[in-house]
Write a structure and sequence with these properties.
The chain is an alpha/beta fold. It has a single domain, classed as STAS domain (Transcription Regulator spoIIAA, 2-Layer Sandwich), CATH 3.30.750.24. Helix content is about 35%, strand content about 30%. It contains 4 helices and 5 strands. It has helices at about 30-40, 60-75, 85-95, 110-115, and strands at about 5-10, 15-25, 45-60, 80-85, 105. Strands 1-2-3-4-5 form a 5-stranded mixed β-sheet, with helices on both faces. Helix 2 (about 60-75) links the parallel strand 3 (about 45-60) and strand 4 (about 80-85). It is globular. The model has no long low-confidence stretch (mean pLDDT about 90).
Length: about 130
Amino acid sequence: MDQKKIAVKIDTRADYISIAFTGELEYGIIEDVKKELQAQSFETEHGFIIDMQKVTNIDSTGFGMIVNFAKKVSVNKKKIVIIVVDDFIRNLFAISQCDKVFPIMTNEEDAKQVIKGDWSGELSLSEY
């Protein structure tokens, strides 16, 4: 049986912070990632782009981690944009209704445009 893995890479850019995940965002294997996000500085002009292009699965624990991080981000008046390219992962975002809370883009260029603008979802973070 393969050992499940998750990796995170955090890069500070000129006006946002990129957080790229690789692997599975699932119960039992994301504790270290949660700690990294909790320790994250909010010193950024616009907010965070969460890059999930290399995520192969996400469960309710992974969604919960993103939502909890988003709550901290919103308290600091910053935004989150999520990059998803895989149809399976995009479908999981739709099932969880996270796509109604966060802008879901397919590439970093589009995500950069959205993070600098005014996007409002069908649901606010507090309604989710």
